[in-house]
Write a structure and sequence with these properties.
4 helices, alpha+beta, elongated, 4 strands, four-stranded antiparallel β-sheet
Length: 184
């Protein structure tokens, strides 16, 4: 039918809240319209279910309230939070890192002119020393690309002392370069 009733009207009809002429009109429509009849039966089933749940909850035995448990973990959590706050306050402040510009000025002294003397030529004795081994210069190996302004050189060695190295440790406590020291 064209003039079907809303769910609100159908609920009001089910609860008997409408005027007698409106009740009669809806009852006649429900007999003629199968769609409204199906909706009315669905609403009646829902209402019956809600009624059953409400009756059960009113007649159910009371559940005793649970006894509150002591919260021992709360004391530990508060202590941990306080410790973290103190640790954060005591940490040193890090200054923002900025690149270091190293300016080196090399001064080469002038070479004096040779002085000529009239002394007789005396040939000094020539001592032949053992040839020296040519070793590559000891250089530091950079461990990162960050520039540092100040650093501390720390000598570290293996347990037996056979292998030693120098570490350049920056103010942040990290090693920035390393050099192996050869013991002779």
């Amino acid at each position: 039918m064209k003039n079907c009733w809303t769910d609100g009207d159908l609920r009001a009809h089910m609860d008997g809240e409408l005027a007698p002429d409106a009740q009669a009109a809806i009852a006649a429509h429900l007999e003629a319209c199968s769609a409204c009849g199906a909706r009315y039966r669905e609403l009646a089933q829902r209402a019956a279910w809600v009624s059953a749940v409400m009756d059960f909850s009113e007649n159910a035995p009371a559940i005793p309230a649970a006894r509150p448990r002591p919260r021992r973990w709360l004391l530990g959590a508060v202590g941990l939070a306080a410790s973290l706050a103190v640790a954060l306050l005591l940490l040193p402040k890090r200054a923002p890192e900025r690149p270091v510009q190293v300016v080196a000025k090399v001064v080469v002294p002038p070479v004096p002119a040779p002085v000529q003397t009239a002394a007789p030529a005396v040939h000094p004795a020539v001592h032949h020393a053992a040839p020296r081994r040519h070793e590559p210069p000891e250089e530091f190996l950079r461990l990162d690309d960050e520039p540092i302004e100040t650093a501390t050189i720390v000598r570290v060695s293996a347990e037996d002392g056979a292998l030693q190295a120098d570490l350049i440790v920056g103010p942040d406590g990290r090693a920035h370069a390393i050099r192996v020291v050869r013991n002779q």
